[in-house]
Design a protein that fits this description.
Layout: H1 2-15, H2 20-24, H3 37-47, H4 52-64, H5 73-78, H6 81-85, H7 91-105, H8 119-126, H9 134-144, H10 156-165, H11 174-183, H12 190-201
Helix pairs in contact: 3-7, 8-9, 10-12
Length: 206
């Protein structure tokens, strides 16, 4: 992955004169893939619309509900909603986490086989779970799976960064973002380009 990220930096600096100085003054993108997909998805649901600190606190309380070990999908389904809410979860988030567990148990979401799927197929699989939208699926592809060809058009940080860096009058639409990525030849390293934009704003997703 380190070699690929070096290639990405070289490619983007060569093709995008706006990103080039940012790349020169930035560390390599922090895109480190792992295979702990289930825990990552649970954590992503918990962290939605929360600060990093608040999300970490609730996640720890959630784990403590299960004697300090990350619960299996069956354990989550065995708990009632009110028990899950003791961790500080909203009712909707507790429901979403149980829906994720249900999808895993009944086989409608096969995380062990997900690496064989295309980006579009993975987004479709993940967004079938309540509480997982396209943005969460894109973050999963980038930060969990290490897919380098993701353009998260729904991310406000990327939209704000592109508006600032590329001199746009308004926040770019998804079509605008896709056009800029094409103009500066970000493919096949859109994920790295987005990471540099986040970094330039000090707004990298954690």
């Amino acid at each position: 992955m380190e070699v690929e990220l070096q290639k990405a930096a070289h490619w983007l600096a060569k093709h995008d004169p706006i990103l080039a100085p940012i790349i020169a003054s930035s560390p390599p993108p922090q895109l480190v893939p792992h295979t702990n997909y289930y825990q990552a998805l649970v954590s992503s649901i918990i962290s939605q619309q929360l600060s990093v600190k608040a999300a970490a606190t609730i996640l720890q309380r959630f784990i403590e509900l299960f004697d300090g070990a990350f619960p299996s999908p069956s354990q989550i389904l065995s708990a009632n909603i009110d028990t899950l809410r003791l961790a500080g979860l909203s009712r909707s988030k507790a429901t979403y986490i149980q829906d994720l567990a249900r999808h895993i148990i009944d086989g409608s979401l096969e995380l062990d086989a997900i690496t064989q799927l295309s980006n579009e197929e993975i987004v479709k699989e993940l967004t079938a779970v309540k509480g997982i939208g396209v943005w969460t699926a894109h973050m999963f592809l980038m930060f969990c799976m290490g897919r380098l060809d993701i353009l998260p058009v729904g991310d406000l940080g990327i939209r704000s960064g592109m508006r600032q860096l590329y001199g746009l009058e308004n926040l770019p639409t998804p079509d605008d973002m896709t056009a800029i990525a094409a103009r500066y030849h970000w493919s096949p390293y859109e994920s790295a380009a987005c990471w540099y934009i986040w970094h330039s704003l000090d707004n990298t997703p954690k």
